[in-house]
Amino acid sequence: MAATKIGDVRAKSADELSTMLLDLRKEQFNLRFQRATGQLEALSRIKQVRRDIARVKTIIGERARASAPQA
């Protein structure tokens, strides 16, 4: 599975982003578990998932700041 493009993330709705974030966190947990038990073959996938999580959280944060009232 390739890394997520930022344009693809921006095109998603808030519900889709939260679902995507949940799925990525589950995948991250499973990858860490596989790594600890010595079953992980693609170590680079951990880095990809971590960056995908950061991308999703960045877009969620941008949207929250954009919708917040200006003080």
Quick take:
This protein has one domain: Helix Hairpins, CATH 1.10.287.310.
Q: What layout of secondary structure does this protein have?
A:
Blueprint: H1 6-10, H2 14-37, H3 44-67
Helix pairs in contact: 2-3
GO biological process, one term: translation
InterPro entries: Ribosomal_protein_uL29, Ribosomal_uL29, Ribosomal_uL29_sf
Protein name: Large ribosomal subunit protein uL29
Notes on the structure:
- GO terms for molecular function: structural constituent of ribosome.
- Belongs to the universal ribosomal protein uL29 family.
- It is a single chain.
- With 71 residues, this protein is an all-alpha fold.
- The protein has a single domain, classed as Orthogonal Bundle (Helix Hairpins), CATH 1.10.287.
- 75% of the residues lie in helices and 0% in strands.
- It has 3 helices and no strands.
- It has helices at residues 6-10, 14-37, 44-67.
- It is elongated, with a radius of gyration of 14 Å.
- The mean pLDDT is 92.
